[in-house]
Amino acid sequence: MSFFDSLKRAAESALKRETSKAINQAVQSVGKGRNHTETFTFSALPQNVAQLQALPEASLDSAFKTTALTILALCRYETSPEDAFAMLDFLKGPEEVSGYEKQFIRERLQGKAYIPRSYLAGATPQNGYQPSTPYTVTVIENPYSFDNENWATLYVASGGADNPRNIKLRKKPSTGQWFLNDIQCLSEIRVPVSDDPWA
Q1: Which domain holds residue 96?
Q2: Is the pTM of this model over 0.85?
Q3: % the chain with pLDDT above 70
Q4: d(Cα 99, Cα 53) in Å, to the nearest integer?
Q5: SS3 of 12, please?
Q6: Contact present, 108 and 80 (Cβ < 8 Å)
Q7: Residues 42-76: tens digit of each pLDDT
Q8: DSSP string for residues in 69-138
Q9: Best CA proximity match to 154, nearest among 67, 40, 31
Q10: Chain-centre distance for alpha carbon 109
């Protein structure tokens, strides 16, 4: 093999490597978003809609803020479903929580009011889903979260589930606010150890 053949092969090999690297980078960046997270910290959980509206995140100018506040509102369900629904009404913006949605939440949280708390940092099956304080919610974006204009699907991680669960949001272009559209994070998680006969 001549010197020129070796040089040609080396150049072709380098070109293939660079092309492959460029293709992989393009595939990883498909979608408008990336694997981005935002963490929100609260000194106390809001007890009513006025307290929720007093939080800086209540500007609802990002889908992340609305997602975090949705978790706080759901945490109130255990002690006051009425206050929880009032907060969710605020987060839904132009719409209200429908009768169907209320029934869905009741069914999912009956005897399992710990599910919303599981999305707060420090809450695990071992400690009965008692979160650490101050209360922290981490909201996760994936590469497809903002694929559809004025819509978003963001994720929250539960201390009792292997995979993050999603919440769907819709943007109101005239105000730039993001409102709650669909709560999809209330499916079953691991029961608290204290309630598990097999623990």
Answers
A1: 36-195
A2: no
A3: 83
A4: 23
A5: helix
A6: no
A7: 999 999 999 999 999 999 999 999 999 999 999 99
A8: HHHHHHHGGGT-HHHHHHHHHHHTTTS---HHHHHHHHHHHTT-THHHHTTSTT--GGGTT---SSEEEE
A9: 67
A10: 18
- Using CB atoms within 10 A of its CB, is residue 77 exposed (0-12), middle (13-18) or buried (19+)? buried
Domain count, the chain: 1
- Nearest CA-CA partner of 157 in 149, 167, 147, 143: 167
Residue 5 lies in a domain: no
- pLDDT tens digits, one per residue of 139-156: 999 999 999 999 999 999
Closest C-alpha to 119, from 107, 108, 110, 132: 132
| Residue at 172 is within a domain | yes
The label of the residue with tokens 């945490």 reads: 75
| Amino acid symbol at 66 | T
Is the Cβ–Cβ distance between 135 and 42 less than 8 Å?
yes
Facing residues of 114 across strands?
A: none
What is the biggest distance separating any 2 CA atoms in the chain, rounded to whole angstroms? 83
- CA 101 → CA 15, 49, 105, 186, 191, distances in Å? 55, 18, 6, 12, 23
Q: How far apart are CA 89 and CA 183, in angstroms?
A: 13
Identify the pLDDT of residue 32.
44
Is 80 within a domain?
Answer: yes
SS3 66: helix
Residue 27 lies in a domain: no
